[in-house]
Amino acid sequence: MKKYYKVYRRAPNMAFFLVLGGIFVLFGVLGLFFSDKLWLSVFCLAAGVLVAVLPQFVLFEKYGLRGGVLRYTRCGIPRRIPVSEIGAAVICIYDEYRRGKGFAPVSFGTKEGGEAYLPALVLLREADEGELDLCDTRTATCITFRKQRVTDTFLDFDFLEELWKSEFSGKVYVSEYMAALFKPALDELFGESDRVVVYDRLPKARKDLKK
Predict the structure, then answer these.
(1) What are 103's strand-pairing partners?
(2) Per residue in 102-159, pLDDT tens?
(3) How would you class 63 by CB atoms within 10 Å of its CB: exposed for 0-12, middle for 13-18, buried for 19 or more?
(4) pTM
(5) Is the distance from CB of 45 to CB of 29 less than 8 angstroms?
(6) What is the DSSP letter of 84?
(7) Residue 189: which of 200, 199, 178 has the closest Cα?
């Protein structure tokens, strides 16, 4: 089974939590020598270890397909779901939490020297097409379909091809932005399948009124 990472910027986040945890540990060690409050020193040591170690389980989470089953982790806990129970795959903009900025889209450089947003893949048990106009980013999609969400990640086209050729029989919803940005690759993979729907930020009800 080929495994894929869920988090895009792993190294910078790993370094941040290691440094932050190291600071707590340093304060704890200094407290053992220069403070009479032993409980505070022990607390700093324990907190430092937890801050340095626990986030790594989330940062390096992986997922993959094996025998018609999607194997993934959530908060470090292994989970699995038959691919046949996944009813929708949403391709939108990948965003992540940036300290001081909140959730922000992740960009990358194009061959033409420009800049574009990284794609995300959100897997759902089912999706209401009337709510897709809210799903321009990964976080927005997860919030909109929080009760239906299986897992979410930055888009790896190798995995998308694996999923498409597996027992997955649901629909693939592609945001208008991603459909234009990756049109050649998506056309080659999906062809003219009626299971692929391109959506935009205009509510489905309003689009139907215009027809």
Answers:
(1) 97
(2) 889 998 887 777 789 999 999 999 999 999 999 999 999 999 999 999 999 999 999 9
(3) buried
(4) 0.85
(5) yes
(6) G
(7) 178
